[in-house]
Write a structure and sequence with these properties.
The structure is a single chain. With about 80 residues, this protein is α+β, with helices and mostly antiparallel strands. The protein is built from 1 helix and 4 strands, in the order αββββ. The protein has one helix at about 1-30, and strands at about 35-40, 45-55, 60-70, 75-84. It has a 4-stranded antiparallel β-sheet with strand order 1-2-3-4, covered by helices on one side. The longest helix has 27 residues, at about 1-30. The relative contact order is 0.21.
């Protein structure tokens, strides 16, 4: 179970950084973008929440909201996403 928690904690740290980097890359291309995230890791588990939206270079609009949690009783992911 400790390996699962360590993996979840690492994922909680990396996912927002990766998604935030993608949003920054879109913003650098001159298209509107937004991203934010929160994360927590403690003795009983870890969670991360990431949200973002923007416009791709092709003019497509996207939105995502991801929540991931891992604790002593298991792990879960909840995702909402849309694109045009």
């Amino acid at each position: 179970m400790r390996k699962l928690l360590k993996a979840a904690a690492l994922g909680a740290l990396l996912v927002p950084a990766v998604l935030g980097g993608a949003a920054t890359a879109v913003a650098d291309a001159g298209d509107p973008a937004y991203a934010d995230g929160s994360r927590y890791a403690g003795p009983d588990g870890a969670w991360t929440k990431t949200r973002g939206s923007g416009v791709t270079a092709d003019g497509e609009v996207y939105y995502f909201d991801v929540f991931r949690v891992a604790g002593p009783h298991g792990a879960a992911t909840v995702t909402t996403a849309a694109h045009s």
